[in-house]
Amino acid sequence: MGETFPMNGGDGDYSYTKNSQYQKRGSDSVKEMIQQAVSENLDTKISSTVAIADLGCSVGPNTFFTVENLIEAVQKKHPSKTLEFQVFFNDHSGNDFNTLFSSLPPERHYHAAGVPGSFHDRLFPRSSITVAHSSYAIHWLSKQPQGAPNEGRIHCLEAPEAVLRAYSDQYEKDLGDFVSARGEEIVTGGLVLLVFAAAPDGIPHSENINSVLFSYLGHCLMELANEGVVEKKKIDEFNLPLYYPTEGEVRRVIERNGCFSVVKMEMTYPYSEIKVRFKIGPFRAALEGVLIACFGNSVVEKVFSKMQIRSDEIVERLMAVHDFAQLFVVLKRK
């Protein structure tokens, strides 16, 4: 699912370009941590060219802010060298690269290239990337979890244990593939910097903000099924390809891989005020593509309208759960 349906392209009302402010705030919150990580841990031979990859770049301006931050950090690390930067913007082949590249900063200090493909697979030649970065992307699964009936639900919240296990197993496989691919591509002493939505250890999925939102989305779809707008069978067969891992799950996969040292792994809470409001735009920009493919455009329009009507109820529920959490991870290639 994640391979086929990226974020909404273009610059319309429900585009990712206009609805990625939460992701930007999350990325901005670790800006200084990223600079510190590069300053203290980047330990590779730097020639005249530095290759940087942003994995899951999407279409909005966030990726450009991140790239500029990375370039600034590397330049501070090597102030006496004249460096050229090659930046690779990666996302699925269906990503709106036209919008992405038409909005490139005109005064940028790097050469830009697009690399279509799944970051769960190899994307670059061996030992060719100095720093790889990914923000708000690796909680997407490569496909829907399979093999566990999940009747009347579209996610693992309040689902049978077998469904939660299917989600966890799929995530561990996908993260393992991601780390293995980067292990081939990152130079010795190079870095992988990750920030993504996660769940604190010991916090049940029922207390995760995103899981609560997915639960409401599922309830609205079931209302449409009861109204005869959509087949219930389609809902039963659908699982959102998103999973919010715990710190323990992430660490276990990375350490099992063995290619990287875990330099830093820290749970942060960048915007607790997200709980006091619910805006349909960011939610729709991220999920509309996958939902349209499974249920059709007319159904998706109706389901988001239902969620908007229930926005006050959603906010009240969000106030009762834990703050939105993200995990910041720094990996160094051995």
UniProtKB/TrEMBL annotation:
Keywords: Magnesium, Metal-binding, Methyltransferase, Transferase. One of its GO terms (biological process) is methylation. GO terms for molecular function: gibberellin A4 carboxyl methyltransferase activity; metal ion binding. Its EC number is 2.1.1.276. Residues 1-20 are annotated as: Disordered. Belongs to the methyltransferase superfamily. Type-7 methyltransferase family. PANTHER family: S-ADENOSYL-L-METHIONINE:CARBOXYL METHYLTRANSFERASE FAMILY PROTEIN (PTHR31009). This is Gibberellin A4 carboxyl methyltransferase. It comes from Salvia divinorum (Maria pastora).
